[in-house]
Structure formats: structure tokens, C-alpha cells
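Progress note, sequence design subtask.
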């Protein structure tokens, strides 16, 4: 594989490692010079191989397209007749989405190198055998994670488990069932030697149990799965939750900028400001927002909201899910955009702190709408898409005066405090939270036929959001999907969740406006992504493409 397997030279694997940093706690990287693979690898420096595996995950979790677009929750920021292969499946060909393959195979290649060096090159003293086992466990867990990320998109994979030391072109794909078996083997092998409470940024035992729960849950829906898989998923989810009660802190506290390392976070991609320059290049603050700097009074370089760098927005369906008593809404989206500078020109001079745009949760009546349009733009819930509403005569804020054509409540939960337009973000990226583990448990129990246990886990998540105990009295897959939307939007891989539950086609047809207008989804093709065309060309015919591409 051109980028992921074929050209992974040892020097790159050893020298191209990046420090992973949290806000105040870091996986430490030592800086070496004039080193070779022969003099670098020994007991004291071996952990740098594992650090390199963690570093490669950053690219995986900055790759957003295949996770979010083409779902019920997110669509593109463009006219309804605009075509986007990833979103509406029109023109989805083998060149689309290759980065997910390449980035995850980069993790696999580095994990393979770490495992091989730990097992075969390093001369371990008896006193450090536990460190040997711990390093191998981390690498195997992260390799299993990378394979799982890919199998959900591509089906059967190339299960290469050897350190890449030469260029090859004879790779073949294993079956999807064989791929799941390898993922389960990696994670089950890793869990006994992972730590309960490791250094910040490391993969913990509970994080691995969460992943393995999701692996078994996803496998349970396949043709080779069984009820036993759902039962195992539920058991592992219970282990990952442990004794932690998510109701001990609010949703707002979980996402507070100064509380990024907290008990609910099972695993996060670490960023920060005190390590290498590459530690402060997160881009998550640029997701699910329009270009707010187009509004008067909002400055491109000083706005606290960020700068849009991803052509996606929430669907109207997403906004409709928030009930009046759901505290997550205020922490997830901005319903008002405020000026951060003065704008003396125009019919209504703007000073810093003024509201520029307001997005009401419930449509305003005509009298209140006109009154507010004398002070700022108002976009009603049915106007949260590309387009320009008709002007209302006589008000100061005519819609034709707004240079931004796509107006919607932008995301708040990923707001950063340190960034430079689209990049240089320092907020950690949450990958797994205990609230998500509860929702895995609910889904697993429901699939296994235990609706009572499913309700218990679903209601724990709901209670933190609304303050109401046992709000759900019955439970369906759609209930769980809706609660996942409210709790995990922009965090979990929404496409993979809809695929595994068999709800992808139904829900994009019901809720994605661009799919509704001209979608070309075909379940015989689009439940798998295409193998990248470049990989096929370099494989000398040994790799096979997924059907329909």
C-alpha cells in the first residue's frame, strides 16, 4: 500500500515521531540526534516507538469526511442541488475517501514496528519485562483500533502484522470475518497488560474494553455474528463504565476548556501549547460552522468562534432533537453570534458584544421577528440551510445585506481558546467517553433482548441532560440513535453507527436534505467504501475492489 505499507522505511518510523501532549500532562518524547535504528532501540528509548503510534492517531481523528457526511445529522453547506460524493453518494468512486485507509494503515505500520522491536530486537532485563508487556499491549490495542476504524468502512482488510522493511505488491485482503477475528485477538491480548489509570494520553484498560465492546456489538449485526456477540458487548461495556457515574459532572463541565482531562474521558487525542509545534495544530474548532467572519462586527483573526474549514453543517433534523429541558443544547450550539469589534457603518452601528445573528429554537411570530430584525438578523428554524430569505420591508437588517449565504446555529462544544483561524487548536479531541459507553451498553442489551437493562443505561445518559430520572419508558434503536446524536454529535463516527444498525439508508432519506433532493445511495454498493484506486494499481492485481466501484 503506497502510503501505508509500501514506503514505511525504518528511518521514518524511528525518527518521525511526535510528542502527544495534553493541556498540562503529556506523553513525554525525548529528543535524539545522530541516531540510527541500531543505536536507538534499547530499553530506555523503546517507549518512543509506542509514542509514535499515538502520534499517528492525530491524522486519523482529524479526518472528518467519512465519519460525518452522508448521514442524518450532517450535510454540506451548499445549495440543495449541489453534488458531494461523500454526502449524497452521487459520483462516489474509488478516489473518494482514501485518507481514512492511508491514515489508519500508518497506525498499523507503526504498531507493527513497535511490536516487532519489543519482541525481537530489544534485550530486556528481568526488571523491565512488565514494561515490555505494557508497550506491546498498547501497540496491539492501537493496531486493533485502526483495523476496526477501517473494517467498518471497507470490509475485509489486508491483515499485515509484520514490520514493514521492504516494498511489496503482493498484498491480499482477508475476509471481513477474519478481520474481526484479528481485531478481537489484538484487543483481548492487550487488555490484561494495559493499565487501569495510565499516564494521560495513553490507552487504558477501560478504553480498550470500550473499543472491544463496540467491536463485538458491530460484529453481532453481521451475517457471521450472533446474540453471544451482543451479550459480550454488554458485558465489556459494563466493565468499561466501571464505578464511574456520569451524573457526577454536568455535560457543560465535561466540555469545559479547563477540564479536558476528566474522569469521563476514556481516551482522547492530546493537544496542547507546551510541547512541540505539532502539538498545537488541532482543527476541530473549525467544524460545523459557517464563515462567521463574513458577518459585520465579527473579525476574522479575533473572533472567539473560530474559522470554518469543513464543508459540513448540521441538518435541520439534528436541531429538532433537542427538547426544551435538554441542557446539552446550550453547550453544543451557539444560538447567537456576538460582535467582537465595532462596526460604525450601516443603519444600526455595531459595538462589541452586540448580537449580530440570532437563531431561535422556536419560530418567532411576525411582530417579534420584525422587532428583532431592526437589531440583528434572525433566521427561523426552517431557514437553517443555504439560501437567502425574502427581505421584510422596513427593517434595518435586510436578508439581502447579509454576505453569508448559509446561516445556522454553529457548533459550540469544540470551541477552542487558542487557535489561529482554521488551525493551531489546542483543545483535546475526545474519542471515547463513558456516556458513549452507556449508549453502547443500551444498544447491546437491546439487541440481546434485554430491554430493561437497555433502558437503565439510556436513562442514565438522559437524566444527566434533563434532570429527569427514567424519562424513557420504552426503548427502540431509533431512541438510542437519537440520544447518541444529542450526546455524541461530532465525536462518534455517525456513518458507522447508522450502518451497523441497518438505519443508514432509512435515515438519510428521511433527514439529509441533499440526499432527499438528489441522493444516489445504493445499499448494494455504498455500505462499503471503495478501496483506494492507487492501492489497487500498485498491488499487481492482488487486491480486489469492493462491489460496484
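Output:
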Amino acid at each position: 500500500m503506497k502510503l501505508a505499507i509500501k514506503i514505511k522505511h525504518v528511518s521514518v518510523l524511528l525518527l518521525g515521531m511526535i510528542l502527544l501532549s495534553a493541556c498540562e500532562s503529556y506523553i513525554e518524547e525525548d529528543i535524539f540526534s545522530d541516531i540510527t535504528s541500531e543505536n536507538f532501540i534499547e530499553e530506555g528509548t523503546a517507549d518512543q516507538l509506542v509514542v509514535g503510534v499515538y502520534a499517528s492517531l492525530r491524522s486519523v481523528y482529524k479526518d472528518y469526511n467519512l465519519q460525518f457526511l452522508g448521514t442524518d445529522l450532517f450535510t454540506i453547506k451548499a445549495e440543495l442541488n449541489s453534488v458531494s460524493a461523500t454526502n449524497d453518494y452521487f459520483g462516489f468512486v474509488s478516489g473518494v475517501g482514501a485518507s481514512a485507509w492511508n491514515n489508519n494503515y500508518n497506525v498499523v505500520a507503526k504498531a507493527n514496528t513497535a511490536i516487532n522491536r519489543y519482541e525481537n530486537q530489544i534485550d530486556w532485563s528481568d526488571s523491565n519485562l512488565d514494561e515490555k508487556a505494557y508497550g506491546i499491549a498498547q501497540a496491539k490495542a492501537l493496531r486493533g483500533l485502526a483495523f476496526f476504524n477501517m473494517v467498518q468502512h471497507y470490509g475485509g482488510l489486508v491483515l499485515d502484522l509484520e514490520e514493514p522493511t521492504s516494498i511489496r505488491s503482493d498484498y491480499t485482503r482477508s475476509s471481513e470475518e477474519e478481520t474481526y477475528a484479528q481485531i478481537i485477538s489484538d484487543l483481548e491480548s492487550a487488555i490484561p497488560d494495559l493499565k487501569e489509570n495510565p499516564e494521560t494520553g495513553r490507552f487504558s484498560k477501560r478504553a480498550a474494553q470500550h473499543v472491544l465492546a463496540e467491536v463485538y456489538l458491530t460484529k453481532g449485526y453481521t451475517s457471521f455474528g450472533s446474540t453471544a456477540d451482543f451479550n459480550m458487548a454488554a458485558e465489556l461495556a459494563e466493565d468499561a463504565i466501571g464505578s464511574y457515574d456520569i451524573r457526577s459532572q454536568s455535560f457543560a463541565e465535561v466540555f469545559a476548556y479547563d477540564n479536558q482531562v476528566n474522569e469521563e474521558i476514556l481516551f482522547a487525542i492530546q493537544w496542547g501549547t507546551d510541547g512541540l509545534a505539532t502539538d498545537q495544530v488541532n482543527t476541530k474548532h473549525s467544524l460545523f460552522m459557517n464563515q462567521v467572519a463574513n458577518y459585520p462586527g465579527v473579525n476574522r483573526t479575533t473572533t472567539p468562534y473560530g474559522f470554518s474549514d469543513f464543508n459540513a453543517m448540521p441538518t435541520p433534523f439534528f436541531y429538532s432533537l433537542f427538547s426544551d429541558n435538554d441542557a446539552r443544547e446550550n453547550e453544543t450550539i451557539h444560538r447567537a453570534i456576538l460582535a467582537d469589534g465595532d462596526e460604525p457603518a450601516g443603519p444600526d452601528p455595531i459595538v462589541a458584544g452586540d448580537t449580530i445573528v440570532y437563531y431561535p429554537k422556536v419560530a418567532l411570530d411576525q411582530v417579534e421577528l420584525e422587532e428583532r430584525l431592526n437589531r440583528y438578523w434572525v433566521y427561523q428554524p426552517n431557514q437553517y440551510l443555504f439560501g437567502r430569505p425574502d427581505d421584510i420591508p422596513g427593517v434595518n437588517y435586510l436578508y439581502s445585506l447579509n454576505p453569508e449565504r448559509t446561516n445556522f446555529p454553529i457548533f459550540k462544544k469544540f470551541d477552542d481558546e487558542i487557535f489561529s483561524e482554521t488551525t493551531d487548536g489546542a483543545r483535546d479531541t475526545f474519542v471515547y467517553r463513558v456516556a458513549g459507553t452507556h449508549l453502547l451498553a443500551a444498544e447491546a442489551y437491546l439487541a440481546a433482548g434485554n430491554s430493561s437493562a437497555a433502558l437503565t443505561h439510556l436513562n442514565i445518559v438522559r437524566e444527566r441532560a434533563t434532570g429527569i430520572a427514567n424519562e424513557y419508558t420504552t426503548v427502540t434503536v431509533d431512541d438510542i440513535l437519537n440520544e447518541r446524536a444529542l450526546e455524541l454529535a461530532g465525536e462518534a463516527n455517525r456513518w458507522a453507527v447508522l450502518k451497523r444498525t441497518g438505519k443508514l439508508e432509512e435515515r438519510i432519506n428521511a433527514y439529509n436534505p441533499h440526499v432527499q433532493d438528489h441522493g444516489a445511495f445504493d445499499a448494494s454498493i455504498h455500505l462499503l467504501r471503495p478501496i483506494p484506486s492507487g492501492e489497487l494499481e500498485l498491488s499487481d492485481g492482488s487486491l480486489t475492489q469492493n462491489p460496484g466501484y
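Strands lie at 20-21, 26-27, 74-75, 265-269, 313-314, 336-338, 355-358, 377-378, 429-433. Work on this subtask will continue into the next period as scheduled.
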